[in-house]
Automatic annotation (TrEMBL):
Residue span(s) of domain Cation efflux protein transmembrane: 29-222
Record organism: Cupriavidus pauculus
Identification of the protein by name: Cation transporter
PANTHER family linked to this entry: MITOCHONDRIAL METAL TRANSPORTER 1-RELATED
Keyword entries, A-Z: Membrane, Transmembrane, Transmembrane helix, Transport
SUPFAM superfamilies: Cation efflux protein cytoplasmic domain-like (SSF160240), Cation efflux protein transmembrane domain-like (SSF161111)
Amino acid sequence: MTFSPAEANPPVTDEALEVRHLAARRSTLVSVFVNIALTIVQAAIGVVAGSQALIADAAHSLSDLVSDFVVLVAGHHSRKDADLDHPYGHQRFETAASLALGALLLAVGIGMLWTAVQKIEHPEQVQPVKLVALWVAIGALIAKELLFRYMLRVAERVRSSMLVANAWHARSDAASSLVVALGIGGNLLGYHVLDPVAAIVVGLMVARMGLQFGWDALSDLMDRAADEDTVAALRQTMLETPGVLGLHDLKTRKMGDLILVDVHLEIAADLTVEQGHAIAVDARERAMRRDDVLNVMTHVDPVRR
């Protein structure tokens, strides 16, 4: 006995998606304004002060800005209603956006590494930096850390993996600004090579985070199952349904930040079709009360008591 996606619980799901969209849009716009300011200031002062590390950090801020626009576009498309081509909705657009963010971070990290290594191979090109670069790096560190804490709080409240990825992108930028500040400080103390060394560390951090986000998103696109705790909770919820004697072949797969569930319910064979159907509907509705479940497909298996 199978239930179609159209039988999902629209009011709860639509309300949850609307809340997530508004939170994502608001937090991302804040990030956009912060990153525009940081990119301009870091790039300008990096050139004037002669700091490659600060210029690399500006490139990182620019990648944050690009990722913000990716998140805004993904948030818009993921809100589209289900249609004939996408009967389960467009939530995986967010997963695809996370994959794009990972690729962007990886590309930016590799570019930073390449430029910094070239500087170290030609140390005569490394010049002492000006003090203003240090103050800009410290200011950027504070701004990015505050932005990270704000964005992560919003992401956790609405349970969006795409927003979590974007928040940790901001945290990686904060960590990179710390490394940049240390590198610039070392340069000011006379260890000029520490400026490009700091740029290398930033590049490695960015590339590593890009690989992590990209792999997680790719796994979700390949129908990765929900975590063990979630599956166990779903199993227990449906087993508590009156009339359900057992269940098997419980399968889950990610659909953006939501979950699609397939399950075989064991119901007494001596019941009527109508009674068995009612029990299955009850079990499905109990599972659908979770705000992370998009749809539940049930099959009734009659068992002799």
